[in-house]
Amino acid sequence: MSDKTGADGTAKTTAAKKTPPKRVTAKKTATKKTAAKKTAAAQGSPRETSVAAAVPAVSGAAAGKGTAKRAASASTEASAPKAAPPTSADSGAPEGSNTAASVPAESGAAAVETPTAERYSTRTRLAVRKTYKLYIGGAFPRSESGRSYEVTSAQGAFLANAALASRKDARDAVRAARSAFSGWSGATAYNRGQILYRIAEMLEGRREQFADEVAAAEGVTRASALAQTDAAIDRWVWYAGWSDKISQVRGTVNPVAGPYWNVSSPEPTGVVAVFAPERPSLFGLVSVLAPVIVSGNTAVVVAPGATALPAITLAEVLATSDLPGGVINILTGRIAELGMPLASHLDVDALDLSGVTDPELATELERAGAQNLKRLRRPEPEPDWTADPGLDRIVSFMETKTVWHPVGV
User: Where are the beta strands (DSSP E) in 119-225?
Assistant: First the structure.
């Protein structure tokens, strides 16, 4: 047993001693292959020569496939030109530039150019031309007739196209105003004042736009247009404050001889047709429109064609200021064409002829309005719009209701 064990142990020892030479042989083989590759690289093409020159000599088992890959990568980086660091000017470079050179190749993601304001600024675009439409029932329809006209500045330059209202448009506006009357007059005075103040807030937000349109329409200076816009906003706020006070000022308890309680209180008339003055375009419009609606009336406004832009811009303010649709309806066009259909309309309760400058036309409209006993405010020869307005314009379109109530026995 001992002999066999010794023999087996001797065999194992011999096998263990023979193993290291095999590893040495592998090292020698790898070294020979590396030397052969170096020789081939030295004698090969210029590209292979640059690879050999870029990679230092490596001995031992490290000279494997990984070394060859690193050598090829080093050669590629050495032969490729280095990209300059990105600058602020490169951010707006067009396609085909070296913007993608800063992205490592190992990431595998393509470089994406981010659009900048500089690239957009170089584009040419067409301006969005605006057609100023009518304002009826809270919407902005075109004229039923399909007509429009050019609005020009005081110097004759083209400003915009505006819808040219027809007789049918006037009837539609009256119908919308009548539909909105019950809700608007039935609202609390406090609520009406809140809505009118909201309109003033929106006017303030568009102050610059109104000033531009007033300056273009009337040919006045920028400072004068801003002053008129500010005065119009202030006047609108002034009228808004009277919404819940006019009944206290104009209403009264009447002393009577008898066992009765007699009270008189003002109430809105109904639908009022308003002819706005041409000058001042915005301040005059506000001065005739605000006193009509503050008491609960609804209005159909005819804005003169030459100064229609501030009126339609005001309509855009009204549409976004909590004002119920139909309370104010704005028509742009010719007063001579729209005056008679409104004055003779039996569902119109009052006329404000402040913007009618032709005396003969004003007389014709007065006669037409007498058919159903419309309340009437005649045009003034030379109105001073900057004067204190007082309550006259509010009261002109209100009726007084008197109630008799028995008391006692």
Answer: 131-132, 148-152, 158-163
Q: Give the pLDDT score at 112.
A: 56
**Does the structure show a pLDDT above 50 at 165?**
yes
User: In sequence order, what DSSP letters do the residues of 305-340 get, joined into one string?
Assistant: GGGHHHHHHHHHHHHTTTPPTTSEEEEEE-HHHHHH
User: Would you state the pLDDT for residue 215?
Assistant: 94
Longest CA pairwise span in the chain (Å): 156
Name the residue type at position 75: S
Q: What share of the chain is helix, strand, coil (3-state, %, to 5)?
A: 50, 15, 35
Residue 350: name the closest of 284, 291, 308, 264 by CA.
291
CA-to-CA distance for 231 and 113, rounded, in angstroms? 51
User: pLDDT tens for residues 120-134?
Assistant: 666 777 878 788 899
| Pairing verdict, β 158-163 and 260-268 | unpaired
**In sequence order, what are the residues at sequence separation of 6 or more whose Cβ sits closer than 8 angstroms to the Cβ of residue 70?**
55
Provide the whole-model pTM.
0.69
Q: What is the residue whose two structure tokens read 């406004």?
A: 301
Instruction: Kindly state the average pLDDT of the residues 73-79.
Output: 46
Q: Which of 240, 262, 249, 128 is nearest to 191 (CA)?
A: 240
Whether pLDDT at 62 is above 60? no
As a whole number, mean pLDDT of residues 142-169 equals 91
406 within 8 A of 259, measured Cβ to Cβ: yes
CA distance 217 to 170: 24
Whole-angstrom distance between the N-terminal and C-terminal Cα of the chain? 149
Instruction: Identify residue 102 by its one-letter amino acid code.
Output: S
Q: What 3-state DSSP class applies to 354? A: coil
Q: Do β-strands 260-268 and 398-406 pair in parallel, antiparallel, or remain unpaired? A: antiparallel
Q: How many CB atoms lie within 10 A of CB 403?
A: 11
Determine the average pLDDT of the residues in 217-240. 95
